[in-house]
């Protein structure tokens, strides 16, 4: 990892109508528009969905690093993030992010250790730590079961 501080630069370009184009070095351009809730088309990423997506993306990337350092074997992690936008003191802002995390670990894994690694990832996520809205993790740890081999297969 590079020394801090890190700097991230994105260009947002628009005309009076149409999509916003987001560009940065070495990455494909991304088009965004207002969400349906703000009278947009609803078929593109919006600033709101990008922010909620960044919470999930950061949590998964952080989990990967912590799981590797902890030597935690895992099969998959799927996070569904629900960001709640509300008006507080006449200002629109995200007030909460609920993360439903479904972590699958191999048979023989300790679900308590997996939960602790997932909790540590939530508390270490730099995107979540940069937001005012409350973060609430709802974890579900699923331990895979080994498939049994039918007795006829041994004959």
Short summary of the structure?
27% of the residues lie in helices and 34% in strands.
Q: Explain this structure to me?
A:
By secondary structure, the protein is α+β, with helices and mostly antiparallel strands. It has a single domain, classed as K homology (KH) domain (GMP Synthetase, Chain A, domain 3, 2-Layer Sandwich), CATH 3.30.300.20. The chain is 27% helix and 34% strand. It contains 3 helices and 6 strands, in the order βββαββααβ. It has helices at 47-70, 111-124, 126-129, and strands at 11-13, 20-24, 27-32, 76-88, 91-105, 134-143. The strands form 2 sheets. The chain has a 3-stranded antiparallel β-sheet, with no helix packed on it. Helix 1 (47-70) packs across helix 2 (111-124). The chain starts with 10 loop residues before the first strand and ends in a 12-residue tail after the last strand.
